[in-house]
Amino acid sequence: MEVDEFEEVKRDLKKSIEALSKSEDFDPILIKKIKNICKKNDRNVCLAQKLLYVQLRRNHCVVRLNCVRIMDQLFQRSHSFRNLVIDDFQTFVDLTLGSDPSKPLPAPISQNKKLRRESIKMIKEWHEKFGEGYKKLRLSFNFLKQIVDFDDLSLINDEERLKRIERQEKLERIWAERIRKVSDEIAEYSVDIQSWSTRTKNLFDVLDIAGNKVDTSSYSEEISGQYNILTRRLLPKTKAWIVTLTKAGNSTDHGLMRRAIDLKNRLGRSLVKFESLNIAFDQIEVKEECIIKVERTSEPVIDPTTWEATVKKVTGEDLKLNLQLEDNDKVIKSENIDAPINIDAPIPGVSGSSSVPKIRLEDITEPDQMIVDPEKSRFWVSDHREGQVLSIGCTQRVTEFSGTSEPVKWTCRAKLDSGQLCPRMDRNKCPFHGVIVARDEEGLLVEQVEKKINFDLVSKSRAKRNGMKSADKWDETSRTRLEKKIFNKNSASRVAKDLRKYDKIRTKDKFVDQFNY
After folding, report:
1. What is the pTM of this model?
2. Dihedral (CA of 147, 149, 154, 158) sign
């Protein structure tokens, strides 16, 4: 009877551990069931430890992660389970940390870091909580310090950790160099600042002693010079020093920061004194300033990218189009217009029988003209057209649109992958989903509502997929599937063969398409 009961407990415990270790979501009901079974006696605890190590040896990183979480729950509550795990602690470390290069963690690769961090974090918590009572756990923790960084929760020789440390050291070197540069600049500018401060103090003392008896305009040049040195050189420099030292963060030199702030405050007080003089410094004219007058020519500047500038550059002559149109009462004629333009004719796009009294000359555009010159043309032309004047295009009349434009009041409403509806407002056709048609609130065509109902009934009857994805397909995406096909060895070989074939054809007949040869 006792054997049958144990076998039943064994099957139940095995089924629960396998189900929880292979589930994508950590089910609290199953873990509670496992803890209740282990709570009955130590024999069940020993059985749970063995079953967990069986699952921990599986070549699936997510299964191992779930096993570590189950073991943490039992480790926190059972003395017997703690002894069993500590006795075989080396196996636990090899299967969860992957510190041995000959025993790397299994796929999926994306979950390796998570498993390692979770395991290191749990070992650290176990040592903090139970290290005093379990000597072997304490010794194991001290030994792991040689290969594990418990502060960073990673291996000491982890590639990502090494890159991060290298990046951090590089940044520290950069900021140390910037701080050193700021220190040198402060030492260099201190003499200039002291000299400027002395000169400015003497200037203010003269103004204070003289009072209203001295005309400040006689000192305007000196005041303006000192003010410009302050606002254009000294004050911006001190602000730049403070910004650099602030961005340096923990690497900054606090003594240097205080010195830079003191200099900025001193210069700020001097700036207040200058502003209290009520002098318009931007309007003071320095005697030594050279005033350069730029004489503008009356000739219009030609845009070098226009056709007119190109023709002038090629032919050396100005392009003068015939825009002299003769007015008449009812007709406007041009030498290049074959038919007269009736001004009484209604303008296209304008309703009604209204007519305009005349056509504005700026509304008419004449075609461009070009002289055929084979020597100066970049295109090959026949010799019989040399010297001819060609008209490019035709005479056109440009009018403003005077109709009405109705605003678009509807959206595409096609269903997107995110579950939302397409918000584009186009008149007839959406560039992403085609012709705009009537859709319901869910983004489906009105005539497809019945099909959707039938599809929902069929989809609800489908069985839900059990278990988790395999380790090989865990990280698989549409991109990786396409990469396997595109970068397949056989596909790449066929593409390379075709490219070599075309290169051979191109190099064999290298000059066949060049008439100069």
Report:
1. 0.50
2. negative
